[in-house]
Amino acid sequence: MMKIRLARGGAKKRPFYHVVATDSRSSRDGKFVERLGYYNPNARGQEQKLVVDAARIAYWQQNGAQISERVAFLVKGVTAPAAV
Fold it and tell me: Which terminal residue of the chain, N or C, has fewer Cβ atoms less than 10 Å from its own Cβ?
């Protein structure tokens, strides 16, 4: 089963997350099928906090991918697709 979830990156105490489409059996930070965007909780100034490709997320959901609760909460307000 495919899932759309966050994969953690960044340094210690400075998280950075990639929104990815992955197999549910793979580890959180393991291999993924496609990178759909990113989430930077520590964004400051002109930095963007969330960038996702809404069209690709919709594509994966139409093909049976389950979206995680956190990703669903984050992309709830996103309407237009953005460049990744």
Answer: N
